[in-house]
Fold each of these.
Amino acid sequence: MKIVKHSGSIVDFNHEKLKQSLLKSGATPAVADKVLQLIEDEVYEGISTKQIYKLAFSLLKKGSNSHAARYNLREAIRLLGPEGFFFEKFIARLFLSEKYQAKVGLVLQGKCVSHEIDVIAKQGAIVTMIECKFHGGKDAATDVKVPMYILSRFNDLKENEYKIFSNNDRISRCCIVTNNRFTSDAVVFAKCVGLELLSWDYPETNNLKDKIDKNRLYPITCLTTLTLSEKEQLLILGVILVEDIIDDSLDLEKIGLNSRRIKNVLAEALQLCRSI
């Protein structure tokens, strides 16, 4: 059976790929098989991947909000836009969870010109500049022009000393992070010049998706018990991660949720972040 991707390309319906995505949401094999069977009963020649996704999300949500939230993770990352400012904060939190120090949005003077850096992170003596390339479209890719441009900025910055975390920090490492993917040319170029890349599915292991699941760093936009407007309000208040509301629900009160809604949101948050 042929299905239509978001980009308009036509591909075969992949039973196993869909099953794996259901299992990665936390669904048991029995639940995944049941959802898969229900989806297969509904699919037809020429159905869009978007419609299949919506159907899978709806079926998972009937059984478990947290499973639906995990299945919705890539879309939840996209909701950290449209400009990507919240995505930068999210990436800083990710590095903090891995025992780095991290700061967002610093302007540093290079050898030639000044540069605004999305995230600066330090672990041990190593200081890393992290540039975040956020895409609102699902099929957009970061091409080779991006690492080429960032390499020139890195070269302009790495000769100087800065007062960031200490009085004599030198930037010696550069990482580019995107919520989507890199083109093959971007990967080849980055490897050649020593830039590190992190995307939804690159590298093959310990990619963005793996890091989020491993550290349970789910963005607040994951939660199915919040409306889009409520998620936006929480982001403005500085609530980036689901874990931010678990120990302090005051921000949920600030955006007008009643006690019943707060209880439901916290139940989903706990299940999402603390389940094994």
Amino acid sequence: MRILIVEDETALREQLQSALTAEGYAVDAAADGNEGLYQGSEYPYDLAVVDIGLPGMDGIELIKTLRQKDHQFPILILTARGNWQDKVAGLEAGGDDYLVKPFHPEELKARIHALLRRAAGRASSALTFGPLQIDTASKQVTLEGAPLELTSYEYNTLEYLSREPGKVVSKTELTEHLYDQDFDRDSNVIEVFVGRLRKKLDPGGTLKPIATVRGQGYRFTLQSTATGTIE
């Protein structure tokens, strides 16, 4: 998952970037509204965290503009302002949720998890595909009840592919959504992650959870056996 942080306070921006990177997200950051608009328009994000009080273009105008440009990723608003008018203005501009500063990092993570689940149409953080279960909140994967040891890159690849079973995902889409701008974008690197995933998810060669679609990318072949979806 790739997240954009737009926050002008350097210490807080770096703290958020570090905390979310440690959670396994690919994170880009901008220090003002104009840079946030550029990045939000040019790169494919799964979620943005936007401060209202930004220099240049303020956060409310940034959110309005992103929505006008038809960018539909969830937006979590950050504000130091306690009055209800500012919260309402941010939500009416197109924000999906808000946090008032100061806040605990765990609350931020929980809000982000909830927004990503909602965007994917899921009520629960647990994705179940027969013997395979993926918990997107704890980022834990189990196979027939036994935990699997995955690297952050392997986990990110698995979670993204499993979000839409049956959909063909290109190598380009994987790198754009999952990895930050410093990631080695050689397509062979993605092939290595997928190859290692196959061995860990399917040691007996019976599940075949990830299919290669020649010339197009990869498809997650397992179907969800869970019923907790959001209508």
